[in-house]
């Protein structure tokens, strides 16, 4: 992490308008309603921070899996997002990066970590029901999700082998937005 000037780091949850170089969402995520008639997919992707460059007027966050995000100094939530990016970088945990296609607003949230998937079953013809070992509640993976096959493989592997996973879910519906295996595969420092 590099710094040109110092800024205080705070933790909280807010939405901030930022400039996202090249767009932060998946290129294959549909902006319109999916075929099932549900709501449009949020552009949420779990990504690992590989570098943070702080300048006088902005902080640029670089990701292993995708484009950079430019956080403008003075924008509401700036310190919160810089703090989350720093924690993600230091602890090697992914961030849930979401972008609203209509407003260009980007949000950086910490991902949830779980010791593994307990069960994946059909809920109905449009969704799978997912139970995690370390989280109370029921989560759902929609079959029309643009990354359904990849996410389902990750969930099935975790259920079969007991591997740890990172995930992001939209509330209140508890729809899974993204799931990644934990490359360290363990509780570590309980990030």
Short description:
The chain has about 190 residues and is α+β, with helices and mostly antiparallel strands.
Number of helices: 2
- How are the strands of the biggest sheet laid out side by side? 1-4-5-6
Order of helices and strands: EEEEEEHEEEEEEHEE
Helix and strand content put the structural class at alpha+beta
Main sheet attributes: strand count, strand direction, barrel closure: 4 strands, mixed
Low-confidence stretches: 1-38
Integer average pLDDT? 78
Q: What is the molecular shape? A: globular
Q: Roughly what fraction of the amino acids lie in strands?
A: 35-45%
Number of strands: 14
What share of residues is helical? 10-25%
Rg on CA atoms, Å:
17 Å
Give the CA-CA distance, first to last residue: 19 Å
How would you describe the overall organization of this protein?
- By secondary structure, this protein is α+β, with helices and mostly antiparallel strands.
- The protein has helices at residues 78-91, 148-161; strands spanning 2-3, 16-17, 43-47, 49-54, 58-63, 69-72, 95-99, 105-110, 112-114, 117-122, 127-132, 139-142, 165-170, 175-181.
- Strands 1-4-5-6 form a four-stranded mixed β-sheet, with helices on one face.
- The longest helix is centred in the middle third of the chain and has 14 residues, at 78-91.
- The radius of gyration is 17 Å and the shape is globular.
- The relative contact order is 0.18.
- Residues 1-38 have low confidence and may be disordered.
